[in-house]
Amino acid sequence: MPRLTFWYDFASTYSYIAAHTVGPAAEKAGVDVVWRPFLLGAVFAPQGLTDSPFNMFELKGRYMWRDMQRLADDNGLPFKRPEEFPQRSILANRVAAVAGDRVGDVTRAIYSAEFGEGRPIATDEDLAPVLTGLGLDAAALLADAVSPEGKQALRSNTDAALEAGVFGAPTFTTEDGEVFWGSDRLAQALAWATSHTA
Amino acid sequence: MPRLTFWYDFASTYSYIAAHTVGPAAEKAGVDVVWRPFLLGAVFAPQGLTDSPFNMFELKGRYMWRDMQRLADDNGLPFKRPEEFPQRSILANRVAAVAGDRVGDVTRAIYSAEFGEGRPIATDEDLAPVLTGLGLDAAALLADAVSPEGKQALRSNTDAALEAGVFGAPTFTTEDGEVFWGSDRLAQALAWATSHTA
């Protein structure tokens, strides 16, 4: 079965849309999804981006929030803008990086808390109820996330993202190295994955 | 019939795709297209953008050229990257601004020369064969373009773009003031135009 890698960071707004659409669309296309949380700041830094481009370019930022509302509506997803943006996402990224075969559920639930309900997602206290709501052992998972292995897992994903040519989020990459940037490139990425697999 | 305004500048790569897809898609949706060439640089300047973002952010630029090739392939359009990017587009923009009811043909033909064949489009000599190929009086149209009225036509469009909240190209705006940025937002913009018209 062809594979599509989905690169995301909980600081990324459009990744909320992608996280909720990639699963069903990939299943329909017969494609396996590899969930890869990474540290977007580490990918922005070499580009000279010291903050979210949506904060650095005000008009683009204002547009993004309106666009997000429309995309959420189009996809039947709730949307609420969090008070703080971007939120400190490193803990949530680490949790997803150690979530094993529950990574899809964990990713969707954290994004829904953040952009569906506008909740903070930066701390243990923020994330615990989200994880508990999935029937997971929140304390154990949060401890794993900040263990040396948890930190290394996110670092490895971030190195792999840079290696794969990822420069923003969400990004989809195929096994033959094609890069597709943006939630709006999901269909194109899946079509590529299914038509270019040996 | 609902109307969709299509804002573009010949310095914009993705507008090549939009210029060739907006007509057929709008006709199918029962929407009138208003073609509005404008000066992208005047919209970039207040954002602190002194060059194409695709030149300022190298990774994004490299990705854009690959993405353009794929989008051209997907839409059955030829694609050849011009040696110079961005090209000086003010004359071509002015020509489109004075092209009257041939604006769609003129716009598509100039974009095809530029990004379908990779040709220069900056000067009278570059544009004359393109216009002649459409059966137009190239000399007359090029003279109109740089007349006071031609210059004012492009200036008015640019002022209107800023007024409408345009911050990049291509952009589509609806009669009720919604802004859609990017060739990949065409279907969404048309759906909005048809469903939100009184």
Automatic annotation (TrEMBL), chains A, B:
What InterPro entries does the entry give? DSBA-like_thioredoxin_dom, GST_Kappa/NadH, HCCAis_GSTk, NahD-like, Thioredoxin-like_sf
Q: Name one GO molecular function term.
A: glutathione transferase activity
Catalysed reaction(s) here are: 2-hydroxychromene-2-carboxylate = (3E)-4-(2-hydroxyphenyl)-2-oxobut-3-enoate
Q: Does the keyword Isomerase apply?
A: yes
Residue limits of the DSBA-like thioredoxin domain?
4-188
The domain of life is Bacteria
Where does the record locate the signal sequence feature?
A: none
Enzyme Commission number? 5.99.1.4
Q: Which UniProt keywords apply?
A: Isomerase
Which Gene Ontology terms describe the biological processes this protein takes part in?
glutathione metabolic process; naphthalene catabolic process
Residues at the catalytic site: S12 (nucleophile)
Q: Which family does it belong to?
A: Belongs to the GST superfamily. NadH family.
Q: What is this protein called?
A: 2-hydroxychromene-2-carboxylate isomerase
Q: Which organism is it from?
A: Pyruvatibacter mobilis
The organism's taxonomy opens as: Bacteria, Pseudomonadati, Pseudomonadota, Alphaproteobacteria, Hyphomicrobiales
